[in-house]
Amino acid sequence: MDYRKKKRLTYFTIGLIFLFSGIEYAVILPTIWKYLQTLEAAPYFLGLALSAFSLSGLLSGPLFGHLSDKTRTTKKIILFANCFEIIGNFMYFMGFSKWLLLASRLVAGVGTGAGSAIFGFLSRSTAPEDRASVFAAAMACRQAGLLIGPAFNLFLRLCDFKIGPFVVNKFTAPGLFMCLMWILLQLAVVFMYWDLPPQEKGGPAKGVASGAREDVEGETRRGRGPSLPGQPEEESQEEEEEEEETDESKPLMTSNELQGSYGAVVTPDPAGSPVTNGDLARPSESPEPEETAGPFSRFNLSREFMREEVIVLLAAQFITLFNQTALETMVTPLTQKYFDFGELENSVMYCVCGVEVIAGFLFVHWLSRRAKERVVLAVGLAICNISSVWCLIFLANPIGDFPYQLTEFIIGVFLQVLGLPFVAVAQVSLFSKVTSEKTQGFSQGVRRSVGGLATILGPLWAGGLTENMYIMLGVIMALLLLLTIMMGFSYDRLVHPAATEHAEDNSDEHE
Fold first, then answer.
1. Where a domain ends, among 182, 199, 216?
2. 89 within domain boundaries
3. Is residue 31 domain-shared with residue 178, that is, in the same domain?
4. Going by DSSP bridges, is the β-strand pair 266-268/166-168 parallel, antiparallel, or unpaired?
5. Fewer C-beta within 10 Å: the chain N or C terminus?
6. Is residue 59, in this structure, part of any structural domain at all?
7. Rounded CA separation 185/170 (Å)
8. 450 with 305: CB under 8 angstroms?
């Protein structure tokens, strides 16, 4: 099978992983509260069950990401993580007690940590200019799962039979359904997923080059060089020898690797070799090759994450998800209080929002090829700020009669959902560019853990302030304003390091 076909099938499988994660959320969330009530659980158990899922994902994300960086493989990690999804959903299906249900969400949440390894894999196997569009497509798959997930509940709620000692009804059926779905996904990963080689800087993926190099070596062993159509064999053999000499003359570490992390100052030592302010190596010591030292041999946690641009993007991750989950928690009580919405009306509303989000991700997928990520991020933050001001004015205490209140609500929700794809895609893509490519899995795990913390705190914040909307929405607006100010001061640093280095080189030449 050729490289391109492997790449298409691998990306298709990644899309299925994100699609199933969205379906699981949309299938289980509508019925989990009533399920807990049948098990005589206290109201706080709902918050515990939802937080347990996010908590285990928060802890497993950096671990799976670190394993991905160390082994440079993701297939085994995904297969291992999916086992937790299968076991957790089967435990949810069993449902003998409220504690078993709580444990089921804790176990299933571990499987979400594979997303860190996947994002690290995508960062390594895609070119920087294509990364935002690839991330947008992956996120759109999850939103598609959120959109079509409620449709599965239409037939799952009709289930009423037994499998041995287990009862299959509208509460337990989602667990059995998702268990079977994750088992099918395991087969897809086994037969349709490959660990593609990393993307070379300024060139195709290493897999393409390595395949050609194997052909060259094979021809060389037979005593002749490979020739292209219409090219003399002697000429192609000379070119091959020149390429081998060029490869042998290449240093073990490139200039970017010698410079350390983005933004480090390079100073020459007495021996003439460049030394960074974070890695003051002894003159007598020579750097180890990457294959021997490993991706974390020169990794410094504080130097990697305690940088201006990284902090801004982590803040964007936290504030965006905090605000999103807080507003999601607030929406249902608000529609019940002012519009008397039931399950049907809320389902229709979430369906329409899902369509808008998918359309937004597709638009960002197109826009990211024509505009820089920091521009996309700025547009998204502008929309989110307008939305927060609108919600604070019109939704904290709706004015007018029913048609005016409904119109105010629709506009506020539309603006909030509209800005989400811009901020989500831009900050993920930029984060992959300003952090080290060698430790992308771990870095993406840290980013997702920050997001997991936000998804835990957001509902807790909104759930306790449903009767104090001015305070809740005011804090949301203040967080967005703070993020906007931070981005404004750090706007020049929110670029790929290579772009900054190129700009600095040009400025030095002009001087």
1. 199
2. yes
3. yes
4. unpaired
5. C
6. yes
7. 23
8. no
For 251-309, give the DSSP string: -SS-HHHHT-STTPPEEE-TTS-EEESS----TT--PPPHHHH-TTTT--HHHHHSSHH
Can you read off the two tokens belonging to residue 476? Answer: 């949301």
192 lies in the same domain as 314: no
**Per the structure, how many domains does the chain have?**
2
Residue ranges of the chain with pLDDT lower than 50?
201-293, 499-511
Long-range contacts of 187-193 (CB under 8 A, 24+ apart): 188/13, 188/16, 189/13, 189/17, 189/75, 189/78, 189/79, 189/82, 190/79, 192/9, 192/10, 192/12, 192/13, 193/9, 193/10, 193/13, 193/14, 193/75, 193/78
Write phi, then psi, for 163 (nearest 5 degrees): -120, 95
Residue 376 · residue 132 · CB < 8 Å: yes
Biggest alpha carbon distance in the chain? 88
Q: Does 39 share its domain with 179? A: yes
Same domain, 194 and 311: no
Query: DSSP letters along 152-165, please?
Result: HHHHHTT--EEETT
Domain assignment present for 245? no
Is residue 33 domain-shared with residue 182, that is, in the same domain?
A: yes
Q: What is the pLDDT of residue 135?
A: 79
Domain range for 174 is 1-199
Closest by CA position to 376, among listed 388, 386, 365, 387: 365
Examine the fold and report which residue of 169, 199, 229 is the final residue of a domain before the chain moves on: 199
Identify the DSSP state of 511: -
pLDDT at res. 495: 80
pLDDT reported for residue 82: 93
The answer to whether residue 452 is domain-embedded is yes
Closest CA to 57 of 122, 105, 99: 105
Give CA–CA dist 362/358, Å, rounded.
6
Contact (Cβ atoms closer than 8 angstroms) between residue 22 and residue 146: yes
| pLDDT tens profile 220-263 | 444 444 444 444 444 444 444 444 444 444 443 443 333 333 33
C-alpha distances in Å from residue 115, one per residue of 14, 24, 74, 128, 418: 9, 15, 10, 19, 24
Phi, psi of 399 (to 5 degrees): -115, 160
List pLDDT tens digits, range 129-155.
777 778 777 877 887 787 777 778 778
What length is written for the chain?
511
Provide the CATH number for the domain around residue 446: 1.20.1250.20
Token reading at 42: 């206290």
pLDDT at site 119 = 82
- Label residue 155 exposed, middle or buried (CB < 10 Å: 0-12, 13-18, 19+): exposed
187, HSE (Cβ side, Cα atoms, 13 Å)? 4
Q: What is the mean pLDDT of the chain?
A: 75
Which amino acid makes up residue 270? P
Q: Which amino acid is at 278?
A: G
pLDDT value of position 209: 42
For every residue of 344-366, DSSP letters joined together read HHHHHHHHHHHHHHHHHHHHHHH
